[in-house]
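Batch job 17 of 40 flagged for manual review because the log was empty.
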Amino acid sequence: MTGPHMNPAIGVKSGAIVALRLFDIAYAIDLARAEALWAQRQGGGSSRSQLSATPAKAVAFDVPPVLLSLDAVPLHLDGNGLKAAATARLYDFGVVALALRIPVADCDWAAYTRLCNAAAQAIDGALWEELLGRVRRPLVQALHRPYDSGVQEDYLLAIVQQWSEPLKTAELEQRLDLVPLLSGDKRPLSEGARRELLRQRFSYYEDDLVVITWDRAFIVEPRGDSDVADVLEVANAQLLEQRYYDELLDDELPRMYDLVEQAQRARHWYAPRRFADLARRFHALVAEVTELTEKADNALQVTEDVYLARIYAAALELFRVHKIGAAVDRKLAIMRDTYTALYDEAAGRRGELMELAIIALIAMELVVAVLQLRGH
């Protein structure tokens, strides 16, 4: 797409900027328990998430996540003091998605772009950690095997609900330059880079638009639906979960090789037990990772809503969720082969010990028989 003809009269009459930060904080979260614990807080509000505009039979959460309301957060962006509404969404597979929503009204396009870029740069890790602490502390009893993984994902949503004048999608792409907003770069991009940045764009009605990139999305939704934003959040949660287990297995595989080598050096009569213990350990880890990754993969089912399904599939592809998931599956396959080999090795060693024991018993019987003959 060539550079659009800019029209300074076009602005954002109403919209929002939503900054997301996702954390993997536990093996699993008991959502019912989390709701009950949050309700005990003074003014603690929560609700089960569902897609607002899409029929349940077309798109549905496998286990609807819990949305928690937090106190508003003061921010200073682009020279302005603002208040951001804060929420936390809990997924049963252990992920928390924090969101800061900054309302925008009567803002020209250049100022809106600057505000988006300022939000991406100014909301730092310390603020996210402080918000995470507000969520985690009251919910400790709802966390199953809590941990600090250190793996995080962030994403920025630039949302427009109403323009300063009626604007159709085809007209919008010609009159507004989306690249500075989506890239965060102040320097002009090459034509190839611009095309790649705008490659994943979708429109269903003549006045809506979704453009997704690796770390940002631009959403024009005149009807005020949040379905696209929710789907992009789920895709980020799935990415986070796959990344966590990919890194976990990266650490576990070298340790596995070392443990197998140690077991092979064990004394012959102790080796079967060592092999069996290792096999059980690896089997438990494989079962755990498989359960959680499948739960994350099935977090959202998109069946009949073709438009939302295309956006969801494009996000999963763009975020490389399936590629990382395939890497996790390959590492799990190595571990499965390893624990199968360990079980076989343990069985073989036990068989050898049984044979030696039988031979020893036969030898003892022969010795006893010879001694008895000599006694006579």
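Reviewer: the log was empty due to a logging misconfiguration, but the result itself is present. The radius of gyration is 29 Å. Unflagging and moving on to job 18.
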